[in-house]
Each structure stands twice: as C-alpha cells, then as structure tokens.
C-alpha cells in the first residue's frame, strides 16, 4: 500500500459502487415505499431500456454474460455457427457457454479494433469444404470493444453490417456492456447505436454504476423466447429484482455526464503514463474509459509491474504478458489518475 493510504482501483469498472441516490432508491423499494411496489421497478426499467435502444421489449438478468448467452441461444440452434471477433468478450471471458451449454459453434474472425471486415464475414458465411457449408445464424459484435482498449465501433460500420446480414437472414446481436461509453464518445444517443441490431445486451453496473444486473433487449417474440431460456439457466427468478431495477433506472437516466468524466480521466492518465520510459500507449486510441499500456519496453513482465503497482496501492488488470489494462470509473478522481501514473513510474523504476 502507498504511503498516503489511498487505494486506486483501476482493475475494472464492474466494481463501481452505486450512487447515494441509488442506495436510497433501493432502500425505498426494499421497504415497500413509494414510488415502486412489487415489480413495478422492473417494468419501469425495461420500458426505459426499450426507449433508449429502440427495441420492443427487454428482460432483466443477473449479468451481461448471461444476457449474451441467452441471446445466442435464442437466435441460434445446436450445431449452428455464430461469428464473433476473435478477441471479443463473449469469446474469451464468458466461459464458452455457447459451446458447452448450447452446442453452438463459434467462428472467430480477426477484426481491427473490434470491427470485422464485412468481406471476411461474408467469406465465413459462404465458406464450403467438400460441398458442406456451415449454417450461420448469428453475428455478434461488441461496442465498446474491451480487448481493443474500449474501441468504439463506427455507426456507419454497424449500420452497413446489420443491413448486409438482414439481406441474408442472419441475426446480429450487440454485446453492449459499455455501449453507453460508445454513445458518449460519439456524442450520440444510444438508440442509433442499437436500433439496427436484432438484440442488445446492456450492463447496469460498470459506468452505469448500479449494484449489478444486465438488460437483454429485442423484439417482443425474441424476449418471450429469451425469458423461457433464462429460466432454464436460473436467471429468470431474481426474487429481489425490483431492488436492483430501482438503481438501474437511475443509472440509465443520470450517468451519461459521469461517463464523460471517466473518459476525460482515462486520457489524463494516458497522457502522463505514455511519457514514462518503456511504456507504450496509443494516446489517439484512448476514446473511452479503458487504457491499454504495453510495458514490454521497460524490460519487465507485465505481471511484475502489476505486482509492484499493487504494492503501491494501484490495481490494474493483467491483459497479457506485455500489457496492463486500466479502467476508469466514477470513483476515480483527477488526483487519482495523476497519482496512478506517478505510481506506475515508481513501480517501473523500483523493485
């Protein structure tokens, strides 16, 4: 721990605590006080999610991982092929549930900052060996793209891809765990980023800052099917869902300005950290709340730098042997961002 005692958690925004207004709303619901009773909070939350995304219906689930899995199972059948970007969160951070639980084959394609070239998607759909062709039912995209440092998918790209898949009868699902970050970065409402998709998963913690939970949005028929599937996975019986929903609703309505500050502080940190000898950061690529720092130029392995950082009271995420990921959220101040960069320099310079 550092000398000043301040612990700076840049490991993930998933641990962001609810705001005071969220805690108050959750307590009010728990005590059956106005404005919500029973499951009215869930209904209000899902209606708001539909307004934001342009979808007909929505389902509250425990996590974005479950929302993505339920979406895949609702769109595709056992033995079908689903196309994903090769470093996507669904592919590498969600336990391969599509294969182990759903029996669905993931086809991984290399993208550029999360965007798969449309010609590569078409080739994967049409590829034939010995006259046999995989049955592709779904394409999944991620916005923002976690492994690409919070990269934002251009609106023109998602519109073109969704239109091309619609022509082929292939559904497109958006892992929008951080789509609110994408909207802020593009100075856009969320709806233009989501309404061309067949379904979208939204995370209620991270930048939205609710305690937990995720929303799966889509057509009414899709959500009816998704609800049945969620029940089989144990995700449709959240007995205190109204408490979670009360916080989530505040997050959806109030956190956009805070998310913009997360982005500014990520760039503040990146600007300072990229001046450290041996640390490589593509400053122009830091558009949202994630900073990827390649520390290989320091001569130290990333896990060793992380160990030293933790000793100095800064948490980060070990992305690979060369790279650390730093994620900014509403509990990180300007001083924290500057202090984290200074401690990173100290960690590299001292054992």
Automatic annotation (TrEMBL):
Modified-residue entries (N6-(pyridoxal phosphate)lysine), positions: 206
Molecular-function GO terms, alphabetical: L-allo-threonine aldolase activity
Cellular component annotations (GO), alphabetically ordered: cytosol
Keyword terms of this UniProt record: Pyridoxal phosphate
Signal sequence extent: none
Top-level taxon of the source organism: Bacteria
Keyword Disulfide bond applies: no
InterPro entries, per database record: ArAA_b-elim_lyase/Thr_aldolase, Low_specificity_L-TA-like, PyrdxlP-dep_Trfase, PyrdxlP-dep_Trfase_major, PyrdxlP-dep_Trfase_small
Domain Aromatic amino acid beta-eliminating lyase/threonine aldolase, residue spans: 9-295
Similarity comment: Belongs to the threonine aldolase family.
PANTHER family the record matches: L-THREONINE ALDOLASE (PTHR48097:SF9), L-THREONINE ALDOLASE-RELATED (PTHR48097)
Name recorded for this polypeptide: Aromatic amino acid beta-eliminating lyase/threonine aldolase domain-containing protein
Originating organism: Paenibacillus contaminans
């Amino acid at each position: 721990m550092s000398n000043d005692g301040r612990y700076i958690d840049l490991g993930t925004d998933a641990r962001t605590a609810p705001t005071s207004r969220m805690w108050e709303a959750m307590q009010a619901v728990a005590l059956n006080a106005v404005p919500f009773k029973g499951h009215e909070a869930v209904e209000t939350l899902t209606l708001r999610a539909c307004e934001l995304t342009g979808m007909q219906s929505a389902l509250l689930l425990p996590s974005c991982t479950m929302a993505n899995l339920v979406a895949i199972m609702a769109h595709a059948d056992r033995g079908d092929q689903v196309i994903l970007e090769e470093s996507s969160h669904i592919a590498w951070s969600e336990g391969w549930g599509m294969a182990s639980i759903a029996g669905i084959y993931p086809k991984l394609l290399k993208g550029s900052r999360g965007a798969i070239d449309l010609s590569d998607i078409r080739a994967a759909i049409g590829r034939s060996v010995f006259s046999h062709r995989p049955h592709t039912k779904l394409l999944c995209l991620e916005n923002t793209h976690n492994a690409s440092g919070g990269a934002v998918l251009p609106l023109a790209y998602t519109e073109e891809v969704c239109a091309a898949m619609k022509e082929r009868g292939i559904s497109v699902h958006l892992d929008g765990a951080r789509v609110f970050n994408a909207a802020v970065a593009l100075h856009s409402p969320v709806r233009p980023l989501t309404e061309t998709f067949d379904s979208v998963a939204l995370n209620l913690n991270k930048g939205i800052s609710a305690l937990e939970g995720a929303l799966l949005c889509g057509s009414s028929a899709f959500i009816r099917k998704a609800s049945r599937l969620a029940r089989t996975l144990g995700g449709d019986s959240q007995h205190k869902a109204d408490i979670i929903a009360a916080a989530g609703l505040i997050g959806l309505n109030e956190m956009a300005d805070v998310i913009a500050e997360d982005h500014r502080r990520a760039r503040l940190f990146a600007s300072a950290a990229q001046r450290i000898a041996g640390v490589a950061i593509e400053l122009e690529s830091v558009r949202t709340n994630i900073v990827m720092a390649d520390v290989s130029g320091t001569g130290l392995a990333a896990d060793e730098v992380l160990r030293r950082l933790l000793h100095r009271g800064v948490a980060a995420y070990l992305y690979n042997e060369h790279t650390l990921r730093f994620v900014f959220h509403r509990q990180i101040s300007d001083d924290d961002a500057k202090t984290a960069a200074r401690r990173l320099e100290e960690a590299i310079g001292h054992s």
